[in-house]
Amino acid sequence: MVDMKNFTLTKHDDELYAIIKPVKQYSSEHKILAVWGIDCLSRFLPVFEAKYPNESKVLYIAVGTLQKWINGEIKMWDARKYTYTVLSLAREIEKNDKAYSQIVRAASHCLATCHVPTHSEGVAMYTVSFLKLNYKNNENVFSLMEEERKWQIDHLQLLTKGVNK
After folding, report:
1. CA-CA distance, 13 to 121, in Å (whole number)?
2. pLDDT tens-digit map of 26-84
3. Are 29 and 163 contacting, i.e. CB atoms less than 8 angstroms apart?
4. What's the pLDDT tens digit per position in 88-112?
5. How deeply is 25 buried, as exposed, middle or buried, from its count of CB atoms within 10 A (0-12, 13-18, 19+)?
6. 103 contacts 48 by C-beta, under 8 angstroms
7. Using the 8-state DSSP alphabet, how is residue 14 labeled?
8. How distant, in Å, are the alpha carbons of 43, 65, 66, 71, 133 from that of 98?
């Protein structure tokens, strides 16, 4: 696992990516990464909704859209279109609230997983980035980040158990 004191959005977490990479090679398993992305993001949706109740609808629509793609109700290209709405909200919130914009960016990556499986890693990265920014003055910020990454890896391993074996 990455040392959270050195965490950056610009570097892969090799342990996390080692689990994602083989899964993305099999289109039949691609949806596992989308489910994992939703699960990772869902841990932060109530936090976002508490601060931005009016804007949270955009994130819930993104999750619902991805769920429709997972269920085969809509095509990837139709699902992917909504990422632009989510990114627009991220840019707007980022002007005044960098930490909470990370949750919105995580939602964008979550939905984009329908197009490119490795976008699922972005969900994990941006939620950890939220913790880093939001709790930067908290003495246990790195513990919070490490606990979240541990949950993410454990949950992904659970979902991918038996894949590519």
Report:
1. 9
2. 556 789 999 999 999 999 999 999 999 999 999 999 999 999 999 999 999 999 999 99
3. yes
4. 999 999 999 999 999 999 999 999 9
5. exposed
6. yes
7. H
8. 19, 25, 25, 33, 8
